[in-house]
Amino acid sequence: MNYIAIEEFCRHYGVELRLIQEFADFGLVRLQTSEAGPTVAASEVKQLERMLRLALDLDLNPEGIDVILNMRQEMQRLRRKTQKLENRLRQLEQERYWNLIQGPQSRGHIVDLGE
After folding, report:
1. pTM
2. Which residue has the higher pLDDT, 92 or 111?
3. Which class would CATH give 3-100?
4. Do the beta carbons of residue 23 and residue 48 sit within 8 Å?
5. For residue 28, what is the DSSP state?
6. In this predicted model, what pLDDT tens digit does every residue of 25-73 receive, in sequence order?
7. Cα separation of 37 and 20, whole Å?
8. At what angle do helices 6-13 and 17-26 cross, to 10 degrees?
9. What is the C-alpha separation between 96 and 55, in angstroms, rounded?
10. C-alpha distances out from residue 52 to 8, 16, 110, Å
11. What angle do CA 40, 42, 45 make, to 5 degrees?
Protein backbone atom coordinates (compact mmCIF):
# COMPACT_ATOMS: atom_id res chain seq x y z
CA MET A 1 0.00 0.00 0.00
CA ASN A 2 1.26 3.46 -0.85
CA TYR A 3 1.24 6.31 1.63
CA ILE A 4 1.40 10.05 1.18
CA ALA A 5 3.20 12.22 3.73
CA ILE A 6 0.70 14.58 5.32
CA GLU A 7 3.28 17.36 5.38
CA GLU A 8 3.65 17.03 1.58
CA PHE A 9 -0.14 16.87 1.18
CA CYS A 10 -0.55 20.05 3.24
CA ARG A 11 2.16 21.83 1.29
CA HIS A 12 0.52 20.82 -2.01
CA TYR A 13 -2.94 22.08 -0.93
CA GLY A 14 -1.70 25.02 1.09
CA VAL A 15 -3.36 23.96 4.34
CA GLU A 16 -2.06 23.60 7.84
CA LEU A 17 -1.25 20.23 9.31
CA ARG A 18 -3.53 21.15 12.21
CA LEU A 19 -6.59 20.87 9.93
CA ILE A 20 -5.72 17.35 8.83
CA GLN A 21 -4.97 16.42 12.43
CA GLU A 22 -8.41 17.77 13.37
CA PHE A 23 -9.99 15.48 10.73
CA ALA A 24 -8.02 12.55 12.15
CA ASP A 25 -8.96 13.37 15.75
CA PHE A 26 -12.62 13.37 14.73
CA GLY A 27 -12.18 10.00 12.98
CA LEU A 28 -12.69 11.26 9.44
CA VAL A 29 -9.31 10.05 8.22
CA ARG A 30 -6.83 7.48 9.49
CA LEU A 31 -3.28 8.72 9.77
CA GLN A 32 -0.32 6.36 9.96
CA THR A 33 2.95 7.24 11.60
CA SER A 34 6.21 6.66 9.82
CA GLU A 35 9.77 7.92 9.97
CA ALA A 36 8.71 10.80 7.72
CA GLY A 37 5.92 11.81 10.10
CA PRO A 38 2.19 11.28 9.72
CA THR A 39 1.03 9.73 6.46
CA VAL A 40 -2.26 8.80 4.87
CA ALA A 41 -2.99 5.84 2.62
CA ALA A 42 -3.01 6.84 -1.04
CA SER A 43 -6.46 5.24 -1.30
CA GLU A 44 -7.80 7.84 1.18
CA VAL A 45 -6.45 10.90 -0.59
CA LYS A 46 -9.61 11.48 -2.67
CA GLN A 47 -11.71 11.42 0.49
CA LEU A 48 -9.27 13.77 2.19
CA GLU A 49 -9.53 16.14 -0.79
CA ARG A 50 -13.34 16.10 -0.41
CA MET A 51 -12.97 16.98 3.25
CA LEU A 52 -10.70 19.87 2.37
CA ARG A 53 -13.19 21.25 -0.17
CA LEU A 54 -16.01 20.99 2.36
CA ALA A 55 -13.93 22.66 5.05
CA LEU A 56 -12.45 25.40 2.90
CA ASP A 57 -15.22 26.11 0.38
CA LEU A 58 -18.21 25.70 2.69
CA ASP A 59 -16.48 26.47 5.97
CA LEU A 60 -17.80 23.25 7.53
CA ASN A 61 -16.46 21.87 10.79
CA PRO A 62 -15.60 18.16 11.17
CA GLU A 63 -19.13 17.36 12.42
CA GLY A 64 -20.64 18.95 9.31
CA ILE A 65 -18.16 17.19 7.06
CA ASP A 66 -19.03 13.88 8.70
CA VAL A 67 -22.75 14.46 8.07
CA ILE A 68 -22.16 15.38 4.42
CA LEU A 69 -19.86 12.42 3.79
CA ASN A 70 -22.33 10.01 5.40
CA MET A 71 -25.16 11.43 3.30
CA ARG A 72 -23.01 11.09 0.18
CA GLN A 73 -22.25 7.48 1.06
CA GLU A 74 -25.95 6.76 1.60
CA MET A 75 -26.84 8.39 -1.73
CA GLN A 76 -24.27 6.21 -3.47
CA ARG A 77 -25.71 3.10 -1.79
CA LEU A 78 -29.24 4.04 -2.84
CA ARG A 79 -28.07 4.83 -6.38
CA ARG A 80 -26.50 1.36 -6.66
CA LYS A 81 -29.68 -0.24 -5.28
CA THR A 82 -31.85 1.71 -7.73
CA GLN A 83 -29.60 0.68 -10.61
CA LYS A 84 -29.85 -2.95 -9.54
CA LEU A 85 -33.65 -2.75 -9.35
CA GLU A 86 -33.84 -1.03 -12.76
CA ASN A 87 -31.72 -3.79 -14.26
CA ARG A 88 -33.96 -6.46 -12.74
CA LEU A 89 -37.09 -4.69 -13.98
CA ARG A 90 -35.60 -4.45 -17.48
CA GLN A 91 -34.81 -8.17 -17.37
CA LEU A 92 -38.36 -9.04 -16.26
CA GLU A 93 -39.84 -6.84 -19.00
CA GLN A 94 -37.70 -8.60 -21.61
CA GLU A 95 -38.73 -12.02 -20.31
CA ARG A 96 -42.39 -10.98 -20.40
CA TYR A 97 -41.98 -9.63 -23.92
CA TRP A 98 -40.40 -12.87 -25.18
CA ASN A 99 -43.09 -14.96 -23.50
CA LEU A 100 -45.77 -12.91 -25.29
CA ILE A 101 -43.99 -13.14 -28.67
CA GLN A 102 -43.41 -16.86 -28.45
CA GLY A 103 -46.99 -17.61 -27.40
CA PRO A 104 -48.32 -20.52 -25.38
CA GLN A 105 -47.39 -23.18 -28.04
CA SER A 106 -43.71 -22.54 -27.63
CA ARG A 107 -44.01 -23.04 -23.90
CA GLY A 108 -45.36 -26.59 -24.36
CA HIS A 109 -48.98 -25.74 -23.56
CA ILE A 110 -51.83 -27.49 -25.34
CA VAL A 111 -53.88 -25.01 -27.30
CA ASP A 112 -57.54 -25.67 -28.17
CA LEU A 113 -58.03 -24.47 -31.75
CA GLY A 114 -61.80 -24.87 -31.50
CA GLU A 115 -62.17 -27.45 -34.36
Report:
1. 0.74
2. 92
3. mainly alpha
4. yes
5. S
6. 999 999 999 887 999 999 999 999 999 999 999 999 999 999 999 999 9
7. 13
8. 120
9. 51
10. 15, 11, 69
11. 75
